[in-house]
Automatic annotation (TrEMBL):
This is Cytochrome P450. The keyword Oxidoreductase applies. Pfam families: p450. Its cofactor is heme. SUPFAM superfamilies: Cytochrome P450 (SSF48264). InterPro entries: Cyt_P450 (IPR001128), Cyt_P450_CS (IPR017972), Cyt_P450_E_grp-IV (IPR002403), Cyt_P450_sf (IPR036396), Cytochrome_P450_Monoox (IPR050196). Keywords: Heme, Iron, Metal-binding, Monooxygenase, Oxidoreductase. PROSITE patterns: CYTOCHROME_P450. Heme binds at residue 409. Coiled coil: none annotated. GO terms for molecular function: heme binding; iron ion binding; monooxygenase activity; oxidoreductase activity, acting on paired donors, with incorporation or reduction of molecular oxygen.
């Protein structure tokens, strides 16, 4: 039912991938992997419960059935490790930190860092999140109304600002533009690494962009190590930021603490895993709201009602239920992390499917979120899918923007608080319109980016 009868029930088409009908030939497959890995997924991945494919004699199992997803990520999680492609892509930059480590090395770091991300702790970061969003709002409001601004870039800046404020109390001497560029240069090489892994090429093999990517990696690792060393010198007294919390963190079972390298690698992991993903969730949400003015009006009305027409305060954020639903639905259509891949540690069976040791098992989140058996009219943007009753009626493992099981995103609550706070501050004062005729192209570089950014015209609501 349309809750706002005066507003049209608009259903404009939104950007999506068009999957190939049938599996690609090896050459097209390889070329497509280099351009955009998830474009190789055939239509069956959006329709069937499982799908098996093979490249140069190397089999892969895709699992879309929620029961199988649960088996891989939760019930039989111990039988799987992070995939070789993830380790080859990310470990050179992120070391053996929480995102990339496995087994005992992962377990103790996760245990030590978990208390940092508890809700009671992260709500204390809300003032910094709101302040960063207000700086972005003011910068956007000051621009000429008809100028186009890349909102994807603006959201990256905002979430980076937030990670610097919450990680380093904002006082670290950090070259924001260089660090951001370093992360982009590094991630740019990951599709080559993916292709090299498929070809079983050795890790030293050269590929285009390798030198630039290695330079970026060296810069990022040195920079973070320097910040940790600076902080050890000045001490952690009176600080409430992720870096001091990591330095003070102890494994509750063994009392073990992190050394400088562990702290630096985990900080870079939080920067890489946390700022771009959250920025993309926001950029895609703004895109969808620009296409759906009726839903935008509901978001604005909720913010008005909760804030009583005043500014967004920390105490308001958790009450913005529909705003949150809108972000959840945007992450269904455009999951910032569109795929999870695991590898079987031994021969295992999941739901009657034999998985030989070493076989990669792909959880294609982007396709699960648009799967014909799991979602009604899957390409339609409808935040009411996340109203409490509707969400309860659905299988938990049909929706996985943050993964599931023991390796579920440690920053999930942080990211949701941040995304709701930033969106609320921006959308209550500003109106966003897409550049005329603009349709984003989906590009996978570990994360799901709009290839040409998100050019938008921004106007003040009161103007
Ligand atoms: C909208 C924003 C975010 C999305 C969509 C997202 C998505 C994900 C996903 C899907 C995973 C699971 C990967 C797997 O199972 O292989 C993950 C893990 C992780 N995320 Fe996030 N993330 C977001 C924000 C953040 C933030 C803000 C932080 C930290 C400040 C963060 C830190 C991490 C870490 C450290 C892991 C590894 C956890 C582990 O393996 O134990 N993420 N994230």
């Amino acid at each position: 039912m349309n809750a706002h009868p005066t507003l049209p029930l608009e259903r404009p088409p939104t950007a999506r991938l068009v999957p190939p009908e049938a599996p690609l030939s090896p050459l097209r497959f390889f070329r497509t992997v280099l351009r955009n890995p998830f474009e190789t997924w055939p239509r069956a991945v959006y329709r069937d419960p499982v799908y098996r494919s093979s490249f140069l004699g190397r089999p892969t199992l895709y699992v879309m059935d929620p029961a199988l997803v649960r088996a891989v990520l939760v019930d039989q999680a111990e039988s799987f490790e992070k995939s070789e492609v993830l380790r080859r892509s990310l470990s050179p930059a992120l070391g053996d930190a929480i995102l990339t480590a496995d087994g005992a090395r992962w377990r103790w770091q996760r245990r030590a860092a978990a208390p940092i991300f508890r809700n009671e702790r992260i709500v204390s970061f809300l003032p910094a999140m709101i302040a960063a969003a207000e700086r972005t709002r003011d910068a956007l409001a000051a621009g000429p109304p008809e100028a186009e601004t890349d909102l994807a870039q603006m959201m990256m800046r905002t979430t980076f600002d937030i990670i610097v404020a919450t990680m380093l109390s904002g006082d670290g001497q950090i070259d924001v533009a260089r660090v951001e560029q370093g992360i982009t240069d590094y991630l740019e090489s990951t599709s080559w690494i993916f292709a090299m892994t498929l070809l079983r090429a050795p890790a030293w093999m050269p590929y285009p962009g390798r030198t630039r990517s290695e330079r970026a990696r060296g810069y990022l690792r040195d920079e973070l190590l320097r910040l940790v060393a600076d902080m050890r010198r000045t001490g952690v007294e009176g600080r409430n930021d992720l870096m001091s919390l990591l330095v003070a963190a102890r494994d509750p079972e063994t009392g073990r603490a992190m050394d400088d390298r562990d702290v630096a690698d985990n900080l870079l992991t939080f920067v890489t895993a946390g700022h771009e993903t959250t920025a993309l969730a926001l950029a895609w949400t703004l895109y969808l709201l620009a296409l759906h003015p009726g839903i935008e009006a509901r978001v604005v009305a909720e913010i008005e009602a909760v804030t009583g027409g005043g500014s967004v305060e920390p105490g308001h954020v958790e009450a913005l239920a529909f705003t949150r639903q809108t972000i959840l639905e945007a992450m269904r259509l455009y999951p910032p992390a569109p795929v999870i891949v695991r590898a079987a540690l031994a021969d295992v069976e999941i739901g009657g499917h034999r998985v030989p040791r070493g076989t990669p098992v792909t959880v294609p989140i982007y396709a699960i979120h648009r799967h014909a058996r799991l979602w009604d009219d899957p390409d339609r943007f409808d935040p009411d899918r996340f109203a409490p009753e509707a969400a309860k009626a659905r299988d938990r493992y049909a929706y996985l923007p943050f993964g599931a099981g023991p390796r579920i995103c440690i920053g999930m609550s942080f990211a949701m608080l941040e995304a709701v706070a930033v969106l609320a501050v921006l959308i209550r004062s500003l109106h966003f319109r897409l550049a005329p005729g603009f349709v984003p192209t989906l590009k996978q570089r570990i994360t799901l980016r709009p290839a040409e950014g998100m050019p938008m015209r921004v106007a003040r609501r009161d103007g």
